[in-house]
Design brief:
This protein is about 40% helix and about 20% strand. The chain is of the alpha/beta class and about 375 residues long. The chain has two domains: about 220 residues, Response regulator (Rossmann fold, 3-Layer(aba) Sandwich), CATH 3.40.50; about 120 residues, Rossmann fold (3-Layer(aba) Sandwich).
């Protein structure tokens, strides 16, 4: 695992946590020598397998930002927070870090249920860049999104699979929390104006491994494809069960939260007919993307965490945070809001522009070739 305390600043993470100031520094008009950011990524739970890649990509981002002069002429320092912690613990941690002035902002990839307990403690107080593709609709004060929404990612992928493979009928299998439920609802609304339809839905608790009801639903239904709204280790376990049940012979899967680490966890036998869509794949041929992949390998070596769209989104999130603050020349939310429409930056995904609280970027569709993704097309949103 990458230790973020080894980048950007010689102060150890242990000292960073133990030396947290209880009284907000702003009360004294104190301007810290660093810009401190809470990096909220999953280090445990169903999505915990994504944590190492998120940390590694964040480390690269901070190194790049600091090499370019930092943010507001100050070096950047990260404070990792486990997004897999119980939600009340996570909420209390963010409230303490923001309320005491320990951090100047929040960046991270985490599930929507985590986002919903974080925003009450950041809204109107500090900038928060959420890097996860999500169900859409977030409008809390000071929140900016790197990740794709269904309009950018899921709906174009469904249109492409209809045109190229004739897939019209879908089952939904997801974890039982806000992102799968709300994304399934959005998919039903989208399909109402098309010849596509969802013929069944099944939801499994986070961490659950009893897929019998879901597999039986798929087997009995006329579905030609399965929309997978499952997380990390849960997705890998379902893919194994799906293949072992022989359902991969005539039904494809479109999984919206998956990286190469999920492929590794499930094994090559579980990936036949598996598709996904994302703004980043290591296999996209572009100068910026290839340079990022080469630097990642050079920095962390062949035993590095799998480079995937989820981890890379943390690199993008920190670039966006830096770009927003630098454009405003301030951490003040109103100043950031005024300058945000002019913000763009270049990164591994190409040129990314801010539009409202979201970003615009290319999105690609890929299929799994054993244990890696092969890009098939750039999608039109």
């Amino acid at each position: 695992m990458v230790h973020l305390s080894t980048i950007s600043n010689p102060v150890s993470l242990e000292c960073t946590w133990k030396c947290a100031v209880v009284i907000p520094l702003s009360c004294y008009g104190f301007r810290r020598a660093t810009v401190d950011i809470a990096l909220v990524v999953p280090l445990s739970g169903s999505a915990g397998m994504f944590g190492p890649s998120c940390e590694a990509c964040a480390a690269l981002a901070v190194a790049d930002i600091n090499a370019a002069g930092g943010i507001l002429d100050r070096q950047v320092r990260l404070h990792p927070v486990d997004a897999g912690a119980p939600l009340p613990v996570l909420a209390a941690t963010i409230d303490r870090m923001v309320g005491t002035g320990m951090v100047d902002g929040v960046v991270g990839w985490h599930l929507s249920n985590a986002r919903k307990v974080i925003t009450p403690h950041t809204a109107g107080r500090v900038p928060y860049v959420y890097t996860t593709f999500y169900e859409g609709g977030e409008d809390s004060d000071g929140v900016y999104m790197v990740g794709e929404t269904p309009e950018q990612q899921l709906f174009p992928a469904l249109r492409w699979l209809r045109a190229e493979h004739g897939i019209r009928r879908w089952c939904v299998v997801g974890n039982d929390y806000v992102w799968p439920r709300e994304t399934a609802r959005a998919a039903v609304e989208f399909m109402a104006g098309t010849d596509l339809e969802i013929v069944g839905q099944s939801f499994v608790p986070l961490g659950g491994r009893d897929f019998r009801q879901s597999l039986d639903l798929i087997h009995r239904s006329p579905a030609q494809g399965v929309l997978l709204f499952m997380v990390g280790a849960d997705c890998a376990a379902f893919n194994n069960a799906f293949a072992e049940a022989g359902l991969d012979g005539d039904r494809l899967r479109l999984s919206m939260m998956i990286g190469e680490d999920v492929l590794y966890a499930g094994g090559a036998d579980s990936t036949r007919g598996l598709f996904t869509a994302s703004g980043y794949f290591e296999s996209v041929v572009s100068a910026a993307g290839m340079d990022f992949g080469a630097r990642y390998l050079r920095e962390f070596g062949p035993a590095a965490p799998a480079l995937n769209n989820i981890g890379e989104s943390c690199y993008e999130g920190l670039l966006l945070f830096a770009s927003l603050v630098e454009s405003a020349r301030s951490l003040d939310l109103r100043a950031i809001e005024r300058s945000a429409p002019r913000v763009s930056y270049g990164g591994p995904r190409g040129e990314v522009r801010v539009r409202g609280a979201h970003t615009t970027q290319p999105v690609y569709l890929a299929d799994a070739d054993a244990l890696e993704f092969s890009v098939l097309a750039e999608l039109d949103s």
